[in-house]
Amino acid sequence: MSAPASSLRLLWVYPDLLSTYGDRGNLLILERRAQLRGIQTESISVNSDQPVPRQADIYLLGGGEDLPQILAARRLRADGGLAAAAADGAVVFAVCAGYQLTGAEFAGEEGQPLPGLEIIDISSGRGDRRAVGEVLADVDPALGLPRLTGFENHQGVTRLGPAARPLAKVATGIGNGDGTEGAYAGRVLGTYLHGPALVRNPALADLLLSWAAGPLPALPDEAEQWGRRLRDERLAAVSA
Amino acid sequence: MSKLPLRARLATGIGGAAGLMSRMAGRGDGSVIGGVIALRLDPRLLGQLAAGKQVVLVTGTNGKTTTTRLVTAALASQRQRVATNAFGANMEAGLAAALGRDQDAPFGVLEVDEKYLPTVLTSTAARVVALLNLSRDQMDRAAEIWLVARRWRDALADAPDCQVIANADDPLIAWAASGAKQVTWVAAGQRWREDSWCCPECGSHLLREEDDGPGHGWHCGECGFARPAVSWTLDGQAVVDPAGHRYELELALPGRANRANAVVALAVADRFGIDAGQALPAVRQVTSVAGRYTTVRRRDRNVRLLLAKNPAGWLEAFDVLAAAPVPVVLAVNAQGPDGRDTSWLWDVDYRHLRGRRVFVAGERKLDLAVRLEADGVPFQLVDGMDEAVNLVESGGDLDVIANYTAFQQIRTAFGRTA
Question: N or C: which end of chain B has fewer CB within 10 A?
Fold first, then answer.
């Protein structure tokens, strides 16, 4: 096993537009889990009035209300930095509204289709009712991750094209709307688990880190204890 | 009393009896159940109860209960009788119960849930509406706050006789209030800015002057929407009224947020001819509001209770904490009234708590534990308030920050002495 990269650049895309509810959590969890392994991190927040640098290792996109989502898509398309970085093999982790806008299209404030970034083969529209609540989903066995636990709050319906694979199968909740949840292709991964989705899914955080940095050693138990207890509590509470 | 139609009189009588029974059964303040029953008997009741009263409505994400209390104190200081929902029951049933309890009062001062402002404004024909602030709160059940602001804007545009008192430092509030015919602008400040990066009018970036103090501007670089000129200003520990008179606030209530609430309350009182010099003595005497800011003596320790329900509220609560190393209990639940989604914890910057002992309680204490771990804040889990109290040295102080139902549970555990 080769040593992981010694440093990572984490880039939070448009926290001014795409940070509705605790999205910072994903950045904090990635920083912590990298640093505990001796990987230095440099975190950059890029607001929507700034260009998106192409040299980062992991790009994070959060959730957003309708109008900020539309504005973010428009600016990211005009800027081109995120799509170029994704094409160069950067890791992209996108949540909720951010997940929708990585695809070919998403629904605007009146439900009208609007163009997305086309960095993954998905397409989203608006569903009949809002999906709000806890989610449990079983991850594609090819990724070797334990069950996902999180919270969703969206009205989106997402269809996957042939070049994307579902991230997981829904056990509780709505997800993409067809029994699947999220999508991934290459190093681009999106999910309807909103906000701080990586908090209760540290294995997913490690998958993203390993895509950028190479194989990772396990963390000592004391560094995992609170996350495991929270995860176990939520899994038990929602399965019950 | 006699001016109410028979059906409304019956409704308030039955509702009042239910409220009394609820209080006697110890099931709460009794301020909602009576109103629920009364409104079911007569849905027009709220309008009928408000008829002939001068009604003030107070709304916003944070500070509603406190500001309502301060306005009530200011009006009552001039020997005015005021009907008010002092316990925070702020949907239609709570408002009907409050007005029904004191039908002869010439004033009604009511805090209103953000979502209900448009309908309550119509049914009560309110004379004054105070708009405090808008920020993310309980997103699993509340509407997006821009939609809330848009509904307020439309409702206020349809109420030309209503006087609006609005915080000009909060761009969403300024946008909502700019639909009204008569607005008194207050520089009440805004510390939480994560929900006002974008222009509510056109969606472009808002430009702000760097200085953090109130009285400093914001404007949209695209459409020109800008902070209105203000007539009342919170300036540090003092208020400056429209004539330029400066009064030291000297509140018993702690913190910047309460000074902001007080300035809004003084501007409301002024609409009724009570100037700041007249109102302040009564406003200063308010020491706790529905248990908030109360200090309880518990096993020889002084326990002070603070309520914080959302990221902006937590930011203001940190401002009120006793200086380190006074320890703090954080208690978080995720029941319906709290919002069932704890994601918002990640919008709060807990690094403010470094340098003091932090005890973690509440039904979602593990969510808090993981959050504090990520911020590098050492903490200790406790099973309840008594365990935390016992961990503080005898005679010592302990601050408590809790969200809504966690706060109510603590008050109940303390026997509502709080």
Answer: N
